[in-house]
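Quick one, probably user error.
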């Protein structure tokens, strides 16, 4: 499972504490990132979105190849927050937000669009970083 691709971006790193001995206890990372020519293992986003209107709202297992995935990332207190996510994958584009808690649990909401049909499909990301689950939301 997981996401693979060519990583780029810029990140700032800061630490703050009331005593020098506690300085490394709570680092803050924030910045922009982009992954290109990548793949998300375990989910087929195109089929999930394509079949959403047919009454088949089950998650579709497979792979999602994408051209670019970009957004803003922060890491604080072990929680990763991804905002303004944008994924482009041929006929599919998505936008949204995703959080990863300190134990690897996922909580995300996306809006997906196929450029061959009007409208968007809400998607919910859950599971954990080793086993993503994607389902059609409300």
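Nope, works fine. Designed sequence:
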């Amino acid at each position: 499972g997981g996401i693979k691709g060519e990583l780029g971006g810029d990140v700032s790193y800061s630490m703050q504490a009331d005593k020098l001995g506690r300085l490394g206890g709570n680092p803050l990372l924030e910045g922009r990132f982009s992954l290109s020519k990548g793949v998300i293992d375990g989910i087929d986003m195109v089929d999930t979105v394509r079949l959403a209107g047919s009454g088949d709202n089950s998650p579709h297992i497979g792979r999602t190849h994408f051209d670019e995935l970009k957004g803003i990332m922060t890491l604080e207190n072990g929680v990763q927050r991804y905002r303004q996510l944008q994924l482009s994958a041929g006929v599919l584009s998505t936008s949204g937000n995703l959080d990863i808690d300190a134990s690897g649990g996922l909580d995300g909401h996306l809006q997906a669009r196929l450029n061959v049909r009007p409208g968007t499909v809400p998607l919910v990301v859950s599971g954990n970083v080793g086993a993503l689950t994607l389902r059609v939301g409300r």
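The beta strands are 2-14, 28-41, 63-76, 79-89, 92-100, 106-114, 121-128, 131-136.
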